[in-house]
Amino acid sequence: xxxxxxxxxxxxxxxxxxxxxxxxxxxxxxxxxxxxxxxxxxxxxxxxxxxxxxxxxxxxxxxxxxxxxxxxxxxxxxxxxxxxxxxxxxxxxxxxxxxxxxxxxxxxxxxxxxxxxxxxxxxxxxxxxxxxxxxxxxxxxxxxxxxxxxxxxxxxxxxxxxxxxxxxxxxxxxxxxxxxxxxxxxxxxxxxxxxxxxxxxxxxxxxxxxxxxxxxxxxxxxxxxxxxxxxxxxx
Length: 235
What we know:
Elements: H1 12-33, H2 35-78, H3 82-96, H4 100-115, H5 119-132, H6 137-153, H7 157-170, H8 176-190, H9 194-207, H10 212-232
Helix pairs in contact: 2-3, 2-4, 3-4, 4-5, 4-6, 5-6, 6-7, 6-8, 7-8, 8-9, 9-10
């Protein structure tokens, strides 16, 4: 009678070891077959990683350099030295235009041109600033106010009113909004459109009650109503 051979049962530990050895063997086989491709991929990934680090390092350095240069230009601006400030802001825009300080410098450059009476350049840079700073309500509304102010200085009151309306409608939480109301009413007065100006002052009373703005608006309403009535009196 033949002796039966008892089959050995593998334990879980032995099964795991067997699978590990098989996986290792497959990995080594794959690595040997694709060595060049794997090394190339590693080199590319390392290159990308280094490039990203260099990019962000350069960006931080550019931001800091632009910020420091802007501080100097701002000091000139605050002292009323607008012509020298123009040169400072221009340098920032040319060398660091993509930085936050560079974008804000576009608005300040427009302000400089406005204060020296160069309305054409002021308008050009206010419009550029509006595009660059549109994501920041305060800077964007300031840019829009600049555009409106240039048109007002040029006597283009309809265009000025349009930009003031943009501030009123699009930037409800901006400090510039109340200035836009007053400026719009002023333009309407210049155009002798007194009833429309009264409507704007009434809106100020309604939206900014218990403020100095409302008190000033009341005074203008009384004055303009008197002007409207006087025009109805036969000469």
